[in-house]
Sequence to fold (284 residues):
Amino acid sequence: MTDVLNTVAALRAAVGAWRADGHRIALVPTMGALHEGHVRLVTTAQRLAQRVVVSIFVNPTQFAPHEDLARYPRDPEGDLAQLRAAGADAAFMPAADEMYAPGFATSIRVAGLSEDLCGAARPHHFGGVATVVAKLLNQAQADVALFGEKDYQQLLVVRRMAKDLDIATEIVGVPTVREPDGLALSSRNRYLTAAQRRIAPKLHRELAAVAADVVRGAAVAERLAAARALLASAGFDRVEYLELRDAASLAPCTSLGAAPARLLAAVHLGPVRLIDNVTVERSA
Ligand code: AMP
Fold:
C-alpha cells in the first residue's frame, strides 16, 4: 500500500515507525508526472532498502520567472497509480507552504559545480535544487536517496551538497532510462509534436557517436564542433551546449585521459529544452 503523506510531521511519523522496525529507508525525490525513468529509481531503491518513500513536489524555487513552472505537467492521480503498481511505501506530496513557511530565508549555493552547463543558462536553478533536496533529506532522514544520471550535473551538485553539509544519507545515481530509439524519458517530452519527437532521438544518437569517436582517439574540439553543427542542421532550434567534461569535477576535457569523462548536452526543440549525457571512458 502506498500511503499519501502531505506534511513533514506525517513523513517523520512514518519514517520513525519504519526505523523502529529496523528497516532501511530510501528516498526518491521527484517533481511528479512520473514515467518509467522514475519507476526505475523506485525499483532500484527497493533493492537497497526495505521502505521507499517517493516525494512529489514541483519546487517553485528552481524555476526562473520566465520558465515553465505554471505549465509543468501535474498528474497526481496517475503518479499514485504508478507508485502503487511499483509498490512504493509512501508518496510525500507537500503543498508549497508546507515546504516554504512564511519567512523562509535560507538557500544553499554549491559553488563551481552549479555555475556552468545548465547553471549558465539557469543561474538560480541549482540553488533551488540544492536547497529543496537538503530539506527533503533532512525531512526523510533516509539511509539512501536516488537520483537519475539523466540530470547528471544535478546528481553531482546533490552529492557535493550532502557531503559538504555532513548529511548522512548516501546519494546513489541511477542510469538513464531511454525510449527504444534512445530518447531519454522526460516529463517534458509530452510537449513535443510528432515531428519534433522524430528529431529528438538524434541528440542521443550523436552523443553516442561522439563518445565512440573520442574513445577511438578523435580530436575532441573538432569532434565536438562537428556534433554541434550536425545537431543545428538536424532540426534542433538551438544547441545550448555540448561539452566533454571530467565525470567527477565537470572540469573541461580537451582530451580523453585515464579518468572517466562525461559528454553533456542541452538543446532546444520547439517548447522543450532537452538535456542528455553519456559516459566516455576507455574500456578496462
Ligand atoms: P524530475 O521529476 O524530472 O525532477 O526527476 C526526478 C528524478 O528522476 C531525478 O533524479 C531525475 O534525474 C530522475 N529521472 C528523470 N528522468 C529519468 C530517466 N529518463 N532515467 C532515469 N532517471 C530519470
User: Anything to note?
Assistant: The pocket of adenosine monophosphate is lined by residues 30-31, 37-38, 40-41, 147-148, 150-151, 174, 176-177, 184-187 (CB under 6 Å).
